[in-house]
């Protein structure tokens, strides 16, 4: 388990500005590093082209801190390496700016979205998180370099760290995402789930999207205890939780229908994360969405939360919505 001495600084508390009523502007920040994963992150703008954001900021971070630390006795070499990486970063940003215009279909038409670029120096995850806060970003997008790989996950990847510390919604792109045809929404009775629904409806979903609202209820009894009860008794015990979950998905269903989306609802009694991931794997899901409560300090860095597990194992891209109120 990652503890308070993991080397990742505590994040600031969730700001109250997110999710203000009547605020329909959309600011997207995309972290790029020149990789295929970064290309997918920029190409995801094609999926929201029908609701173009007000601004897109492309960020490339040169990890100058690590370079300086690794070459303390060779300052000249360190400066030369940083200069070379800075030049390469400029080239990367120019290339990705072109990709963003194409994805937004603005290459030959009048721009509806302002595209900006930032070349920064510092520790990558910390710098991305800080810039997102400074720019009051509504959605932070970055590619995944294999969050399902246990070794890299435990060591702390950039995407995992940013997802843990950012105060705004974070989209981790795991494969090409050029449309939001089928969205799997992992729902529960919390205000964070309601806030995630509000974020999707106000900022992201096209009317053509099909949303599956899935609520998974943990079994009321352990497997051992269940052996001593009849099927009818087990069903009676599960009824209140199932009914509450059914009410949750129906309320969410109405909100998505009001946005013009096609909606399917499901309530299952099973292990929460296993069932959600199985659903994401079995269907043609473009995006898995879950709300997350705002945490500070070492709480964010502990393995085992639902959002952490979904980021780690889901085969599709994952959007963790944090900081939005119902």
UniProtKB/TrEMBL annotation:
Record-linked InterPro entries: Rossmann-like_a/b/a_fold, Universal_stress_UspA, UspA
Pfam families documented for this protein: Usp
Domain (UspA): residue spans on this chain: 26-174, 182-322
Residues of the signal peptide: none
Recorded family membership: Belongs to the universal stress protein A family.
Protein name: Putative Universal stress protein
